[in-house]
Amino acid sequence: MDNTMPILLVPGLACSPRLFGPVVPALWQLGPVTVANHKRDDNMGAIARRILAEAPPRFALAGHSMGGYIAFEIMRQAPERVAKLALISTQARPDTGEATTRRQGMIARAKGGEYRGVLDELFPGFVHPSRQGDAALRQLVHDMGDDIGPEGFVRQQTAVIGRPDSRPTLAWIRCPTLVLTGDQDNTIPNSLSMEMASGIPGAKLVVLANCGHLPQVEAPQETADALTEWLRG
Questions:
Q1: What are the Cα distances from residue 44, in Å, to 155, 180, 213?
Q2: CA–CA separation, 165 and 160 (whole Å)
């Protein structure tokens, strides 16, 4: 009897399926893997509706960063379809005024032909401090950015700016939940992962050592192990 569970992965801002490449082989052993397309709409409700329309009837859901914001929206729209939830390098809070101002500046630059410069501005927050000079990781960020494109990036940032506060709905989450973060995430501090884990009944928190905002590529084995345990649990 086949007990495998479809697995739906949602990447972060300016990230594409390449982000999950190092961990997909391990996940694929446990069920068919799909990576959601999250670059086509400019608000969280529409992004989630389109992903749900294309998703299996019931699935394990893992969202990274912006993908976590989308995962919360999917949980609001169709909680009965989510068998398990993983929140990777993300948070439940809405945008701050300071963050929104920064995003608006990046939107203007992307529209003005400076998209590659915007990706370079994001890079230091994406990786552990020890990896600031990692040319392969920087190239990955550029390649994923090219996959999304400046127009997709503008839609994504617009959606992120308008996202709701998910903290009031944390207690409603009843499926097995993993919260995964790096110990030196310079984009979303792991204190915000701890906040989510404490607010979701029964959630498990995993903090990866020597890891930044992109655990799938910075600590692929540890990330795959955590996700595999979550799926098997």
A1: 10, 22, 21
A2: 11
Please, where are the H alpha helices in the chain? 24-28, 44-54, 66-77, 97-111, 115-126, 135-161, 190-199, 215-218, 220-232
| Distance, CA of 126 to CA of 113 (rounded, Å) | 22
- Please give the pLDDT value at position 2: 55
H or E stretch at 189:
none
Kindly indicate the confidence band of residue 1, based on its pLDDT and cuts at 50, 70 and 90: very low
**Domain ranges for the chain:** 1-233
Average pLDDT over residues 65-79: 98
Rounded distance between C-alpha atoms, residue 92 and residue 177, angstroms: 14
Give the residue-averaged pLDDT of 100-113.
98
Q: What tens digit of pLDDT does each residue of 9-44 get?
A: 999 999 999 999 999 999 999 999 999 999 999 999
Q: What mean pLDDT is reported for the chain?
A: 96
**CATH topology for 1-233?**
Rossmann fold (3.40.50)
In 10 A of CB 101, how many CB atoms? 11
> Is residue 123 helix, strand or coil?
helix
Q: Amino acid identity of 104? A: Q
Helix (H, G, I), strand (E, B) or coil at 131: helix
